[in-house]
From TrEMBL:
Gene3D superfamilies noted in UniProt: 3.30.70.920, Winged helix-like DNA-binding domain superfamily/Winged helix DNA-binding domain
Keyword Signal: no
PANTHER family referenced in this protein's UniProt entry, alphabetically: LEUCINE-RESPONSIVE REGULATORY PROTEIN
Entry keyword annotation includes Transcription regulation: yes
Keywords: Activator, DNA-binding, Plasmid, Transcription, Transcription regulation
Name under which the protein is recorded: ArsR family transcriptional regulator
Pfam families referenced in this protein's UniProt entry, alphabetically: AsnC_trans_reg, HTH_24
GO molecular function, one term: sequence-specific DNA binding
Gene Ontology biological-process entries: regulation of DNA-templated transcription; response to amino acid
Single GO cellular component term: cytosol
Gene source species: Azospirillum thermophilum
Domain HTH asnC-type: 5-66
Length: 159
């Protein structure tokens, strides 16, 4: 059963979204809770699936993946077989950071990271050659990343 999040839970989540490596003692201090009570709440948030995992955010430029592209994908037929084939291919491609089935004028929106335009050309060729049912793609190369956040705006959550 989903339990409503209280203000203390939201404080914990805000702090962890800022720094997932914060110690339990420091987290407890920041939210004015005992370390034992804080740890119990964090474990409950993990067990309830609110906290899914902890990750490190890396600098794509320094790791040779500085070019980000968004690709609109239109399938030739929207059948369960084509959806499954597309999902399977995308899940095997390490360059794909995100892939979303969308409603509207195309079927999927793909976010990918590559080194440069030449690597993107190779990626797109592999993508199209190995993905059954793709009718067309439209690519948008990112020129400037204006905003990129990972934190969910918790102030918007109805209590």
């Amino acid at each position: 059963m989903d339990r409503a999040l209280d203000s203390t839970d939201l404080k914990i989540l805000r702090e962890l979204q800022e720094d997932g490596r914060i110690s339990n003692v420091e987290l407890a201090r920041r939210i004015n809770l005992s370390p034992a009570a804080c740890l119990e709440r964090v474990k409950r948030l993990q067990n309830d699936g609110i906290i899914q995992r902890y990750v490190a955010l890396l600098d794509p430029q320094r790791l040779g993946a500085g070019m980000m592209v968004f690709i609109q994908v239109v399938l030739d037929r929207t059948t369960p077989e084509n959806f499954d084939a597309f999902k399977g291919t995308v899940q095997r491609m390490p360059q794909v950071m995100e892939c979303h089935m969308v409603a509207g004028g195309f079927d999927y929106l793909v976010k990918a990271r590559v080194r440069d335009m030449n690597e993107y050309r190779l990626f797109l060729g592999e993508f199209l050659a190995t993905t059954r049912g793709v009718r067309e793609t439209h690519t948008y190369a990112v020129m400037e990343e204006v905003k990129n956040v990972t934190a969910i705006p918790l102030d918007q959550i109805a209590r």
